[in-house]
Amino acid sequence: MISTPKTDMNRELHVGMLFKSIEEAECCYQDYGGSMGFSIKKRLTYKTLARSDVTCVAFSCVCEGIYKEKSSSIVGKQKRRTSTIKSGCNARMRIRWIKEIEMWKVSVLEDEQNLALVTPSKIILMKSQRRLPTAAKSLT
């Protein structure tokens, strides 16, 4: 369904969009997040109890959630600095497996961000946007 990253950038995501695989949907959402200026992560997966088949996958912004200060019980212990700050960003996408057509369908898509977006020149520095082309992977 998705042929090249160039076509992904020109096409907008919408609820009801179909994908052949989870990886295809994740790649499309990574491209969408990169074009919008945020980085993404795979948030969770739902599986059936009987056969352990994945039925639902959710992707979200890496700044999703709210940071809660943890009290350190050890006196003098230094806190570790993290590169990602949780800011309560609501950008997310959820896909569900549709058994009848054997494809993944976008069921939820929210693109509300409450954080400073990355400029196009800095997108390559985001963790989810650092991908090698398949031709470069085959050389290693």
Topology:
Layout: H1 5-10, E1 18-19, H2 22-36, E2 40-47, E3 54-61, E4 92-98, E5 103-110, H3 134-139
Antiparallel strand pairs: 1-5, 2-3, 3-4, 4-5
List keywords for this structure.
disordered N terminus; 3 helices; 140 residues; 19% helix; Protein FAR1-RELATED SEQUENCE 5-like; FAR1_DNA_bnd_dom
What does this entry look like structurally?
The protein is of the alpha+beta class. The chain has one domain. The protein has three helices and five strands. It has a five-stranded antiparallel beta sheet with strand order 1-5-4-3-2, covered by helices on one side. Strand 4 and strand 5 form a beta hairpin. It comes from Iris pallida (Sweet iris). This is Protein FAR1-RELATED SEQUENCE 5-like. InterPro entries: FAR1_DNA_bnd_dom.
Tell me the span between the first and last alpha carbons: 28 Å
Largest pleated sheet: 5 strands, antiparallel
Strand order of the largest sheet: 1-5-4-3-2
Q: Which shape, going by the Cα principal axes?
A: globular
* Structural category: alpha+beta
Order of helices and strands: HEHEEEEH
Number of domains: 1
Mean pLDDT: 78
Q: What is the strand tally?
A: 5
Helix content: 10-25%
The number of helical segments is 3
Low-confidence stretches: 1-10
Gyration radius from CA atoms, angstroms: 18 Å
- Residues in β-strands, percent: 15-25%
